[in-house]
Amino acid sequence: MYCSMAGLTEPEGPCQPGYYCSQGSSSSSPVGLSFGDLCQPGYYCSAGTTHPKEMACPAGTWNGQRGAQDATWCLPCSPGFFCSMSGQDAPIGPCAQGEVKISVFHVLLGSTVLKDCDAAALLASIALREQESVFILVPLGLSTPLMDSARLRGARSALQECSVETGDSPLQVVPAGQGSSAQQEQVSQTPMEPQTPALVAHAHLDTSAQLAQVSPSSALWALTLTGMWETGGPCPVSHFCPEGASFPLACLAGTYNNLTRQAACFPCAAGYYCPENTTSYSVNPCPAGFYCPKGTRFATEFPCPRGYFNPDPMTQSLDSCLPCPPGHYCGKENLTAPSGKCDAGLSVPSGECTAGFYCKGGAVLPNPTDDVTGNICPAGTYCTAGSAEPKLCPAGTFSSLPGRRTLSECQPCPSGFYCEGPGLSAPTGECWEGYYCDNQEGPVTDFTLYPCPQGFYCPPGTNRSTQYSCPAGTFGPRQKLKAVEECQSCPPGKYCEFSGLAAPTGDCAEGFWCRIGAWVRNPQDGESGFPCPPGHYCPEGNVLH
């Protein structure tokens, strides 16, 4: 959200697509500012985005431009290249050459192997279908040797533990540097050399395009096989797969997924935070000094404000932030304990908030400006001494400057303008044409109550009912006239002697005849009328004979 003007009671609206607006944004499209910027490459920002990495281009796509507005800006990874991670601003690199395919299973948890049953099932199905030897390659550099027989048996028995039917699957566990020369030759075809990063792929993704770079010393198991394999499979944890998905999408920040085969991720539980691609929220407890409502995206998203502290982790709301105790002060955000004792050891308030300012609670100054414990009274409001909240200037008045201290400092709406509601920092606008706004008679909050009277006209900004009168020779028979052109000329046989008439003054005198627009009874100017010509007679109100 953004707030571009002072005196607002609520945000003006969401940040524009292609931008992100963090707390305190004064623009809907900030560029290079502390509170916002264009969306970063590798990400996209729909309307209302608050964090630069809130929405990442999913794995299998990339975006090298700033200011992306939606997921359509994320381009599919080019043929022959791979984009294995979300949030990429370019493809990571070219796919591996040759027939040997490599896949990585994230299944080594501590000293336990192959506890991911989906990975185990996939491993077995590949071995059965290909009828080729499937090698589990144990990378070098592990802290615990994998050569003992119990560990080797565990790798094989994991398939049975997961209730996977292996049949005659030719599964073999081959530690790095071990095995027959034929096996070593096949292993050497893979880019798993210890001195270079390895090109590997998640088993649940299309290995021809969805690849990632990892160190060969990582605690991962890899398999190799000859020939191609089918793409697709069950949606993995920490991802979601809506209907028609061609690859799994990483859970967005603020969500998690600890189950396979899910069409959507779950909102992060209150008391925890969930970065992008989270499997289990329980590993990310909210730290002390912060609070984490449902759907929190990162650990520091919601700090306890100044004047408060929070000693406990896993708290869920602002109510968990405790007010600074008597005699102490809390001088910054995200405190886990008070900053220290007040210099004078205060246990009661020092005094009232200064007039022109308001103090919401936890204030350490009589004139706070941090917008957490208080601030200067904004335009459109006033604050008497000891104010906890600004008071709105009433309808019919406005206040163009901040720091107003009394009701009398709210300015009356000027004549010719109207002030429709409370809390205005400027008049609502000029009085509309056809109406007048005479604030000398009282504050005008609704100009429609003051229509222009008969005999007069009111252009925009009229400040008195009789400010603009229909001139002599014309009259105004109805209300709400907007311009002098709407005043009607006096009809033939009549005269309109004064300005501001609602009807003609009367009939033209006998012995004269009046044309349109006469302003005297006996016109002789030849324009508005004449004396009766020889050979004619002209009774009173004569038009023409």
Automatic annotation (TrEMBL):
<feature type="region of interest" description="Disordered">
    <location>
        <begin position="174"/>
        <end position="193"/>
    </location>
</feature>
<dbReference type="InterPro" id="IPR009030">
    <property type="entry name" value="Growth_fac_rcpt_cys_sf"/>
</dbReference>
<feature type="compositionally biased region" description="Polar residues">
    <location>
        <begin position="178"/>
        <end position="193"/>
    </location>
</feature>
<protein>
    <submittedName>
        <fullName>Uncharacterized protein</fullName>
    </submittedName>
</protein>
